[in-house]
Design a protein that fits this description.
The protein is α/β, with parallel strands linked by helices and about 180 residues long. The chain has six helices and eight strands, in the order αααβαβββαβαβββ. A four-stranded mixed β-sheet has the order 1-4-3-2. Strands 5-8-7-6 form a four-stranded mixed β-sheet, covered by helices on one side. α1 packs antiparallel against α2.
């Protein structure tokens, strides 16, 4: 649902009224961000995996992440498995097995497996202070890169895929001066 001022803005033709409403919206969006951060935070992001044990080994042994949760509910035939970067405890990646019926019909599950294998189901974006060093460390651990580190307008970027086919980007971002 749009904010009340936004709806009026879209229906208002008078420039003076639009300006006031835009200023109100900017003021409202400039509230103390520490207060907002407590309200909404990203905790988990999910990637589909073909085999949770293979994915776990890849993300921990090769990428260097740590296990955050590994809980099996046998009565539901469900495993909640999460990993995350060492030193960043408030964010985790869910390594979710592609479910079958009744959650997904078999045709849909097969489509998800195929898209995942092709690298089109999701992308995980990782950042580092030194892309070249991180690339060399990950290669030494057995990670096969699809894209070697390359300078881009936004920084240095490299790409690899996990054992299920999910894309991962490794980026050393450029610090942009505020304009």
């Amino acid at each position: 649902m749009a904010a009340p001022d936004t709806a009026r803005f879209e229906k208002t033709a008078d420039l003076a009224v639009r300006t006031v409403l835009v200023e109100k919206r900017i003021a409202r969006s400039s509230v103390d961000h520490d207060e907002e951060a407590a309200m909404l935070r990203i905790a988990n992001a999910q990637v589909w995996v073909h085999d949770q044990d293979e994915a776990l080994a890849f993300y921990t042994d090769k990428v260097g992440m740590e296990v955050r949760a590994d809980v099996t509910l046998p009565e539901l035939d469900f495993r909640w498995l999460t990993v995350g970067p060492v030193g960043q405890p408030d964010v985790a990646i869910v390594l979710m097995a592609v479910p079958g019926p009744p959650v997904m019909d078999e045709e849909t599950a097969e489509q998800v497996r195929n898209l995942t294998a092709k690298g089109f189901a999701s992308t995980v974006f990782l950042t580092t202070d030194d892309c070249q060093a991180a690339y060399e460390e990950l290669v030494a651990r057995g990670v096969e890169f699809t894209d070697a580190p390359e300078k881009r307008p936004y920084g240095i970027d490299a790409g690899f895929r996990d054992v299920s086919g999910n894309s991962l980007r490794l980026t050393q971002l450029i610090d942009f001066a505020p304009s």
